[in-house]
Write a structure and sequence with these properties.
- This protein has helices at about 10-20, 25-30, 85-95; strands at about 35-45, 50-60, 70, 75-80, 80-85, 100-105, 110, 115-120, 120-130.
- It starts with 8 loop residues before the first helix and ends with a strand.
- The radius of gyration is 17 Å and the shape is globular.
- The protein is of the alpha+beta class.
- It has one domain.
- Zinc ion binds near residues 80, 105, 119 and 121.
């Protein structure tokens, strides 16, 4: 008989990531010159062709945390995030109004016989920034 584990590697990772985000200061605190931020995200499968989801919204820089990270949409993915903190920091430093790029998920999926395969889902992002 199999026992159900209370937590999974994925759940444990999500929890530690949530703590890392919550412990960070807000975007407005870290980047006093940043007035507004719009994110436009498109999630793709590993082939970069099949769109699995999209997200577009105006970020409240006073509430959003400066660890600016989005979870991988794959439910099997462990340790996978798209961390846009660096992209935001770079854009603000250079005072760019638009920053675009893509990130591969660095997480992995468990396969039978305790093997793993890399997730490699793709996120294409566009940040639109406004300054004071
Ligand atoms: Zn992933």
């Amino acid at each position: 008989m199999m026992h159900r584990r209370k937590t999974t590697p994925r759940a444990e990772y999500r929890l530690s990531e949530t703590q890392r985000v919550n412990n960070s200061v807000s975007l407005a605190e870290k980047f006093p010159k940043l007035k507004s931020l719009m994110v436009d995200l498109a999630y793709f499968d590993t082939d970069g062709l099949t769109k699995s989801g999209e997200l577009k919204y105006r970020v409240n820089v006073h509430y959003a945390k400066s660890v600016f990270s989005f979870a991988c949409p794959s439910h099997e993915c462990v340790g996978g995030d798209f961390d846009l903190s660096g992209a935001v920091a770079q854009a603000v430093t250079d005072r760019h109004k638009i920053a675009q790029g893509e990130i591969r998920c660095k997480g992995w999926r468990a396969l039978p016989k305790e093997t793993k395969e890399p997730c490699r889902n793709l996120l294409r992002y566009k940040l639109s920034l406004g300054y004071v």
